[in-house]
Design brief:
The chain has 2 domains: about 110 residues, Tetratricopeptide repeat domain (Serine Threonine Protein Phosphatase 5, Tetratricopeptide repeat, Alpha Horseshoe), CATH 1.25.40.10; about 190 residues, Sandwich (Jelly Rolls). The chain is about 35% helix and about 20% strand. Strand 1 and strand 2 form a beta hairpin.
């Protein structure tokens, strides 16, 4: 019986994402997940929580997200239990077996998604800081979620029209799809959106970069230059990448700054600090002053959350 439930969950995830050669039908996938959750699947309940939080294939609902997450935790899903403890601000080890329902009552939605203080520190180009954007426990959470997903970071190749390995970029990256996100991450995406006062649907996928000692990303810009034909389809479908929001997830490394080359500024936050910059100037033109590099750490390892923001609704991609 449990095997049948697992197969149902896998089929639902196939529909949700179009993986394994399936047609991509997010609404059908979300409905299938919720059906499997009602049938008793802890795994489906946990994924249904993420889908409800993100509004992926169904209307967004924080209430239903927490309800599904609580259901998954009650059914013994370890990931759901860890998420629920994090949302409530308690240690997972301190939660008793019968406490999951009451634990959900401690979740403070506003405290999670409300904007954080942020201010410009440089006017040209427009660069700002959001000090203490993430608490240390959330930074540690993101690192551990990103660690097993790390893959070589790629660079867009002009003639091939795709990302390729290149000596200019030697770090690794984890890119979170709907299959990798959890409820705390969806909440943090909303916090980023509110802090920069943009719709959450304008956000690209979460990424977390890892730089070991000596790894770097040489000079580059984050905007898409419309004069380059290889970006035409992306710009038409997804709009311009108007801003970049970075969060330093740790500080146990030497060097490793974000270096803005045209203005000679090397910036580096403490654990949890946000650094953001606008890739367009105040008049909406490409800001070539934003050319920057990820400087290599000389010791330790650097973990950096990266969130790109477009000027167009990206839908449910």
């Amino acid at each position: 019986m449990s095997g049948a439930k697992d197969a149902a969950v896998e089929r639902a995830l196939d529909l949700l994402t179009g993986r394994n050669g399936s047609r991509m039908a997010p609404a059908d996938g979300a409905a299938a997940l919720e059906h499997a959750a009602r049938a008793g699947s802890a795994e489906a309940s946990e994924r249904a929580a993420v889908v409800a939080a993100a509004g992926f294939g169904r209307p967004q609902s924080w209430t239903e997200a927490v309800s599904y997450l609580t259901l998954a935790a009650t059914r013994g899903h370890s990931g759901a239990r860890a998420q629920l403890a994090l949302l409530a601000g308690v240690q997972r080890e301190a939660v008793g077996e019968g406490d999951w329902g009451s634990l959900a009552q401690k979740f403070d939605l506003r405290a999670w998604i409300d904007s954080r203080p942020a201010k410009l520190i440089i006017n040209t180009p427009r660069i700002g800081m959001a000090t203490g954007f993430l608490a240390p426990d959330l930074c540690a959470w993101m690192i551990e979620k990103a660690r097993p997903l790390q893959k070589p970071a790629l660079v867009y190749h002009h003639s091939k029209g795709a990302g390729v390995a290149d000596p200019s970029r030697s770090n690794t990256v984890a890119i979170f799809t709907i299959l990798d996100l959890d409820v705390p991450m969806v909440l943090l995406r909303n916090r980023v959106a509110r802090t920069l006062n943009v719709p959450v649907l304008f956000l690209e996928r979460f990424s977390v970069f890892r730089y070991l000692a000596g790894q770097r990303f040489t000079s580059h810009v984050d905007y898409l230059d419309p004069s380059l034909t290889q970006f035409a389809d992306d710009l038409r479908q997804n709009g311009q990448r108007v801003a970049t929001f970075l969060v330093y997830l740790n500080e146990e490394f030497e060097a490793g700054e974000t270096h803005f080359l045209r203005i000679g500024q090397r910036l580096k936050g403490r654990t949890g600090d946000g650094l953001f910059f606008y890739n367009l100037d105040a008049n909406g033109h490409l800001d070539r002053m934003t050319i920057h590099e990820g400087v290599a750490p000389t010791s330790g390892e650097k973990w950096l959350l990266s969130q790109f923001i477009r000027d167009k609704d990206l839908g449910q991609g």
